[in-house]
Design brief:
Length: 144
């Protein structure tokens, strides 16, 4: 019989492999993609890691492994646990909105909302008309 801890590790590894596939194979919902092409991103990889840390109330980014890819519109951050991946979060590079990929919900904390407001301040008057649609973009985060 397999001990419960080993079973839990295999479950987490299985979820991590499925998420890695989903995040690389199907990067983003297409709604609003025309606006996304017309507005430059406002969040870089380092800022994405900081936003996830703020969403989780972490003091720093030491337990986060974030990356962005040219073909994927969102930054993806893995939260590193003691033994395995503890969660995945995606960051909208236009607005800084943070999504919990496993829960398929966006995360909101007072600190994160303040940082998102600072990101919004980077928008030109012309770009602000597209902000609402860009903010609604989200990663595909469905689990099979």
């Amino acid at each position: 019989m397999v001990p419960k801890m080993a079973t839990r590790i295999f479950e987490c590894l299985g979820k991590a492999l499925v998420m890695a596939f989903l995040l690389t194979a199907t990067p983003c919902v297409a709604a609003g993609s025309a606006e996304a092409k017309e507005v430059s991103t406002k969040v870089n990889e380092a800022a994405a890691a900081n936003l996830v840390a703020e969403a989780l109330n972490y003091p720093n980014t030491d337990y986060l492994d974030c990356e962005g890819k040219e073909d994927a519109p969102f930054y993806t951050c893995a939260v590193l646990g003691k033994v395995s991946i503890a969660g995945y979060y995606s960051v909208n590079p236009w607005t800084g909105r943070v999504w919990s990929v496993w829960d398929c919900k966006w995360v909101s904390t007072p600190r994160l909302r303040a940082s998102m407001a600072a990101v919004k301040d980077k928008y030109s008057h012309h770009e602000l008309g597209r902000y609402a649609r860009l903010n609604r973009l989200h990663p595909l985060c469905e689990f099979p």
